[in-house]
Amino acid sequence: MPRIQPIQTQDASGKAKDLLNAVQAKIGMTPNLMKTLAHSPAALEGYLSFSGALATGVLNAKLREQIAIAVAQANSCQYCLSAHTTIGKMTGVKPEELAQSRHAHSADPKIDAALQFAQKLVVQRGLATDGDLDAIRASGYTEAEITEIVSHVGLNIFTNYFNNVAQTEVDFPVVDLAL
Asked: CB of 151 within 8 A of CB of 63?
């Protein structure tokens, strides 16, 4: 049961209602994450703005979803794991890649390096070593890509923590956190 109740769009007002209507218009649904964040229109707008900006970045949609899955698993966020597994499928991430992403691995060495780096950022609380940066650079990642990996980790930590605090009801096909 949610510890912070979502705001239904019809019950929202002002900026929260406008933002929720925009989400509905854009993706055809209003996920419980957004409805719960709507208690603070500033938080919802910040999330939507950051997420939207990163969607126009240099990392492709598949890798962004794989990073989100690795981070969600590391932070035990069932909501985000379920949501990003569903979205990952929609972006073309194969079932075996989804499973590997939960362990921060990939059969593709370059993607594996990104997922390992993302997981280290979570576990090490952002305290990347020179060796961590050397490894990701040696895998072929540019400064822009590294910057966006860090940004995606940060954005996903925000939603993971928020959902874990709120106990947001999962409104995607549920993925069990147990590996």
From this structure: no
Kindly tell me if the per-residue pLDDT of 10 is higher than 80: yes
Indicate the CATH number of 61-166 among 3.40.50.11540, 1.10.10.1100, 1.20.1290.10, 3.40.50.720: 1.20.1290.10
With DSSP H G I counted as helix, E B as strand and the rest as coil, what are the percentages for the chain, rounded to 5? 70, 0, 30
> Which tens digit of pLDDT belongs to each residue from 79-137?
999 999 999 999 999 999 999 999 999 999 999 999 999 999 999 999 999 999 999 99
Closest CA to 136 of 115, 154, 155, 122: 115
What's the average model confidence in pLDDT over 6-27? 96
15 SS3 class: helix
Q: How far is CA 33 from its chain centroid?
A: 11
- State the number of CA atoms in the 13 A half-sphere of 95 facing the CB: 1
Domain regions of the chain by residue span: 9-55, 61-166
Tell me the C-alpha distance between 35 and 44, whole Å: 9
Nearest CA among 27, 33, 30, 66 for reference residue 47 = 33
**Could you tell me the sign of the dihedral formed by the alpha carbons of 165, 167, 173, 174, in that order?**
positive
Provide the terminal-to-terminal Cα distance of the chain, rounded to the nearest Å.
23
